[in-house]
Amino acid sequence: MAISPPHVLVPRLWWSCHSGACGGSAGLQLWWSCCSHTCGRSTGATDHWTLRRHYCELSRYSFIFWLDCIMAPEMIHCLVGSDLTSSFALCSSIGQGLLILNGPKWFQHRRLLTPGFHYDLLKPYVTMMADSVCVMLDKWEQLIMQDKSVELFEHVSLMTLDSIMKSAFSYQSNCQTDSENLYIQTVMDLSLMVQQRIQTPLHHNHLVYWLSSQGRRFRKACRLAHKHTDKVIRERKETLKDEQELEKIQTRRHLDFLDILLNAKDENGAGLSNEDLRAEVDTFMFEGHDTTASGISWLLYCMALHPEHQQRCREEIKDILGDRDTVQWDDFGKMTYTTMCIKETLRLYPPVPLVARELSAPVTFVDGRTLPKGLSVAKLNNSFITMCLYHSLQVFNPLRFSPENSAGRHSYAFLPFAAGPRNCIGQQFAMNELKVALALTLLRFELSPDPAKPPIKIPQLVLRSKNGIHLHLKKLQ
Ligand code: HEM
Fold first, then answer.
1. Which residues, by range, are in coiled-coil regions (predicted)?
2. CA of 284 relative to ligand 1 center, distance in Å
3. Is the ipTM of this complex over 0.90?
């Protein structure tokens, strides 16, 4: 295959002016764009190859992602407008859900599912989130030992899985305390296998993976997970037979995401097929727990690293809660400083480190340069290069998100949840969970880092730490 010379690609610091890079902006994004006068031709595998080479040379972070995925043309063609990396690895496990769908079918699903994130539905979830967080904190109390730090990431993952199952599917998994639960084990195994596949370039080839022992294990786990999801859907369908309308259900219990899915009808009165239902349930379960687990874990880490901000958040939360020991929906809007700290964490440690798109139409910039239709472009949230270029951006400074400092900043300068029609449908859910988790943790514990075990960032589907996140926890009186 011919490799285009490097000069056909020019690095552009996109949005750097809007986001006030010199003033220490929150959201510098680095884009590689193809320059029309040097490469003005329809793009093909060669461009993807060049794009990939540059990434490999310039950013070790991108290397993992771009290594082979970008080269699989069949993938690129079937994924217009969607996230290449997650689609690549997840499609066989979560089916064709909202994250992976494209075109009219995506549009139909997005319209049907959006009501599932109305705040009326999200409100009752707060208590369930708080319950899940408390189970986790109780476990931490048991684990605290003098001078021994606790690895949080795994606990937080189980907590967010517990929380999404309870709130979105009214399913009591008890997964934080019951390690024997086969379904939970399978979901956790699938997450791990997806990461392992990404890290093994040979396994990026579907046939090789399909024939490998890991591929067989993966398929077995998928079958188990699907069987369980089907059962949950079947049982709910039975229950709903008598209840038919959402209003009637609501008088008996809180409406959940599954109710919305099962009652969703398009303008022709058509609902989702069984296969579509399963894909959406699985998508929300994966998207809804791994990402928030990453966000919460890194947030607690940032709080541990910066005791002054930790204390300020704690005081804000205590002021808001007064005598109460738990969080309510109305508290969220008052958590001003806490929200700034959350945003600053999402900037420095974006749970979704990369969003990729294949252009479905050419894009022309203000200076006349164009990106051709079909080109894959990627946005690195908080790229390695950007951070090297602007050292001030490495500083944890929540005040970047104060109303004064945010005023005038381009609305696309900070995009942890992406933007546009394919933005994150669960962002409100996620922000609520981050706030509940932080508030309740800070009320119970003082956090400090473990200098012997600093986390090592590793961007997989979500941003993780290679060696976990180890913090010292001190119980507050
Ligand atoms: C801190 C937590 C989260 C972050 C940072 C995050 C970030 C993102 C980003 C960047 C995208 C765009 C991906 C792309 O197009 O390639 C996305 C899409 C999506 N997210 Fe999230 N997410 C989070 C939590 C959640 C939760 C809790 C749910 C569900 C309950 C969820 C469900 C989805 C779905 C279904 C999509 C695909 C939307 C579409 O294409 O129409 N996310 N998320």
1. none
2. 9
3. yes
